[in-house]
């Protein structure tokens, strides 16, 4: 099975960005961890990060559409990108939406995810461990669909 992990805007700064909210773990460490998990489960993995909405959509079309599952952290686009929601809907691949922080415990403008209705499910609030949970969710989905 093939898994795509896609991180949205500002997540490249992880580790020294708002560390009180997001912690000190870097994106590279998160990807390394996911890569290790994937290898252990015989899953092919492709990790990418982009700060631009159009590129996230292109990666969903190009890589996501040909994968068995996508783990997506849309960053701030979560809250207003109908274009990313439509891409998630459009590719037919199940998408696990993930957030490091609990978006429902933060500012009101973060309480709505416009992407979530198009996703298979959402994991939010467990820091870097959110991604590990997302991996197991993806693993479960891929097993069910195989
Ligand atoms: C985030 C939550 C978003 O509200 C925020 O804009 C981010 C990161 C998270 O992983 O907690 O960039 O998606």
Automatic annotation (TrEMBL):
InterPro entries: DHquinase_II, DHquinase_II_CS, DHquinase_II_sf
EC code: 4.2.1.10
Record field: catalytic activity: 3-dehydroquinate = 3-dehydroshikimate + H2O
Domain of life: Bacteria
Stated role: Catalyzes a trans-dehydration via an enolate intermediate.
Residues carrying the site annotation Transition state stabilizer: 17
Native species: Formimonas warabiya
A Pfam family it matches: DHquinase_II
Active site: 22 (proton acceptor), 99 (proton donor)
GO molecular function: 3-dehydroquinate dehydratase activity
Subunit-structure text: Homododecamer.
Pathway of action: Metabolic intermediate biosynthesis; chorismate biosynthesis; chorismate from D-erythrose 4-phosphate and phosphoenolpyruvate: step 3/7
Protein name (Swiss-Prot/TrEMBL): 3-dehydroquinate dehydratase
Family: Belongs to the type-II 3-dehydroquinase family.
GO biological process: amino acid biosynthetic process; aromatic amino acid family biosynthetic process; chorismate biosynthetic process; quinate catabolic process
Alphabetized UniProt keyword annotations: Amino-acid biosynthesis, Aromatic amino acid biosynthesis, Lyase
Residue numbers binding substrate: 73, 79, 86, 100-101, 110
